[in-house]
Design brief:
GO terms for molecular function: DNA binding. Keywords: DNA-binding, Phosphoprotein, Transcription, Transcription regulation. The chain is an alpha/beta fold. 51% of the residues lie in helices and 14% in strands. The protein has two domains: 143 residues, Response regulator (Rossmann fold, 3-Layer(aba) Sandwich), CATH 3.40.50; 56 residues, Arc Repressor Mutant, subunit A (Orthogonal Bundle), CATH 1.10.10.10. A six-stranded parallel sheet has the order 2-1-3-4-5-6, sandwiched between helices. Strand 5, helix 5 and strand 6 form a beta-alpha-beta unit. The N and C termini lie far apart (38 Å).
């Protein structure tokens, strides 16, 4: 029996996932949580084989920072000798989101509009420790591999994502714990790879190529 925990801040999503999963005789949904922090705590409590994790959670209490799914995945893997397999199930399919989740340790990445049969197959693959990517995600990653010049590293994608959000070099450095000189170095590499000369053009080019 594959024991599954659902981590999503929308109850309707959890209900839908539970209905799909419990139609399989060898899958048991052992719990549900609505925050990434609760997912970490539940994972550490044990008794879970696969954790279906959303990528982004609600705003939470005003003035506090909410952990996202990738951060929770990294924390689970850091803190546990034998962590459950994390399968990201989300609406977001940008390169930055996908690479960030996989770099954090997720064994799979599925979109919420995936057919039930694909989700069930992904859970079974994750339980075995195998990679489980939705066809859309797999196509995006293979396309990225075919265009190495424009392939940004996960760190460069993090920098560019913050640029797109309007952060200054100082703000980016603070968020990622980097010096401003390092941020500038990353931007130089980003500009070169995208063939642009400005922050605005870099963001536009990345969005056009599906990176953001």
């Amino acid at each position: 029996m594959i024991r599954v925990l659902l981590a999503d801040d929308h109850e309707i999503v959890r209900l839908g996932l539970r209905a799909v999963l419990e139609a399989s005789e060898d899958i048991e949904v052992v719990g549900e949580v609505a925050t990434a922090e609760a997912a970490v705590a539940a994972a550490q409590a044990g008794g879970i084989d696969v954790l279906l994790m959303d990528l982004r959670f609600g705003a939470g209490v005003e003035g506090t920072r909410v952990m996202n799914g990738a951060e929770a995945t990294a924390e689970i893997r850091r803190a546990m000798a034998h962590p459950p397999k994390v399968l990201m199930v989300t609406n977001y399919d940008t390169d930055a989101d996908i690479l960030g989740a996989i770099e954090a340790g997720a064994v799979g990445y599925m979109l919420k509009d995936a057919p039930p049969v694909e989700l069930l197959a992904a859970v079974h693959s994750a339980a075995e420790g195998d990679s489980a990517l939705s066809p859309v995600v797999a196509d995006r990653l293979s396309s990225r591999d075919r265009a190495p010049r424009t392939s940004l590293t996960p760190r460069e994608l993090e920098v560019l994502k913050l640029v797109a959000e309007g952060s200054s070099n100082r703000g980016i450095g603070h968020a990622l714990m980097l010096s401003e000189a390092t941020v500038k170095s990353h931007l130089v590499h980003i500009y070169d790879k995208l063939g642009v000369r400005s922050r605005t053009s870099a963001v536009a080019a990345a969005r056009e190529q599906g990176m953001l």
